[in-house]
């Protein structure tokens, strides 16, 4: 009887994860104001000018947060200051979207200082990648969609496709991508809510209140500048935590600028992932254009996405 009740509870939780609907913030329109803030590593305003020019070309007004130009060793000011900047932009009804200025590290240090009550009343798009994964995951636990896309400093070198994909996502056009086939791709079709982001950040928040539930969902991962054995360790940790037991599919973005030891690990990042996922039957897309690369296409975290992987290529379509 006890075993039956446990199975019933697990089945109920899985069904809830599959049927939950997240809230998409209102689409932007010309004349709206967006904010660029630094929740992690420090950045000077001059480095954000390409992003400012880009957003203005879309008909948007841009304001810079008080964290821009601030410095506390690596960080864009002390924790309280970065948290206050984020809080003010979340609470300000005239700000319709918040774009991270830069990645690095530091968002996890302020997330528990932030109150999302006013955000829940008037949600807005949160945009970024890398360390912004903390916000993507935390807001997913609260039931809100965010955009995994360009940060301020990446606008300078971003491809036109990356910039256009972010514009479309912000203004209400659902992303749809057609990709060439990859040797490692695992064929299949799947549909579910997209979760994930930077692998190192996801690994670091396991067990915290910011950890998103992955059951019944499609997982996206990407990373930069990690040792290959670290990639193996993190993926094994997720595997042992049951991350891959009940998911519907995986999208692997850029795994770039990886490091190796004097004695080689013996596999690159994609081969490590292939070795991990060989024990599962869900579809897997490799080398999706998102992450720490110039062609960093926008993805809606929390949005419902359909993936179709065949020998001729794959499609990723948000609904």
TrEMBL record:
Signal peptide start and end residues: 1-17
UniProt keyword list: Carboxypeptidase, Hydrolase, Protease, Serine protease, Signal
GO MF annotations, alphabetized: carboxypeptidase activity; serine-type peptidase activity
Chain ranges of the LD-carboxypeptidase N-terminal domain: 34-149
Domain LD-carboxypeptidase C-terminal: residue ranges: 191-306
Pfam families hit by this protein: Peptidase_S66, Peptidase_S66C
GO BP annotations listed: proteolysis
Catalytic machinery residues: 130 (nucleophile), 222 (charge relay system), 292 (charge relay system)
Keyword Cell wall biogenesis/degradation: no
Family the UniProt entry places it in: Belongs to the peptidase S66 family.
Protein name: LD-carboxypeptidase
């Amino acid at each position: 009887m006890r075993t039956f009740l446990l199975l019933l509870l697990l089945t109920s939780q899985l069904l809830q994860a599959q049927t939950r609907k997240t809230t998409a913030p209102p689409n932007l329109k010309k004349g709206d104001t967006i904010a660029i803030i630094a929740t992690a590593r420090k950045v000077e305003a001059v480095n954000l000018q390409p992003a400012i020019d880009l957003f203005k070309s879309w008909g948007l007004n841009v304001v810079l947060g008080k964290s821009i130009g601030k410095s506390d060793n690596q960080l864009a000011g002390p924790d309280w200051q970065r948290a206050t900047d984020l809080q003010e932009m979340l609470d300000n009804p005239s700000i319709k979207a918040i774009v991270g200025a830069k990645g690095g590290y530091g968002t996890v240090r302020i997330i528990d200082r932030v109150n999302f009550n006013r955000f829940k009343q008037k949600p807005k798009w949160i945009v970024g990648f890398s360390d912004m994964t903390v916000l993507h995951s935390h807001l997913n636990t609260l039931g809100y969609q965010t955009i995994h896309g360009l940060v301020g400093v990446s606008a300078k070198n971003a491809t036109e496709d990356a910039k256009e994909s972010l514009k479309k996502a912000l203004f209400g056009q659902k992303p749809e991508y057609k990709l060439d086939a990859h040797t490692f791709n695992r064929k299949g079709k799947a549909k579910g809510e997209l979760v994930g982001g930077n692998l190192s950040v996801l690994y670091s928040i396991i067990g915290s209140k910011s950890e998103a539930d992955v059951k019944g969902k499609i997982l996206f991962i990407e990373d930069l500048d990690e040792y290959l054995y670290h990639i193996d360790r993190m993926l094994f940790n997720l595997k042992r935590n049951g991350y891959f037991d009940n998911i519907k599919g995986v999208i692997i973005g850029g795994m770039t600028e990886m490091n190796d030891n004097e004695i080689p690990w013996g596999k690159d990042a994609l081969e490590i992932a292939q070795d991990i996922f060989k024990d599962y039957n869900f579809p897997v897309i490799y080398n999706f254009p998102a992450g720490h690369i110039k062609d960093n296409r926008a993805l809606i975290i929390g949005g419902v996405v359909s993936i179709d992987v065949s020998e001729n290529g794959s499609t990723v379509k948000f609904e």
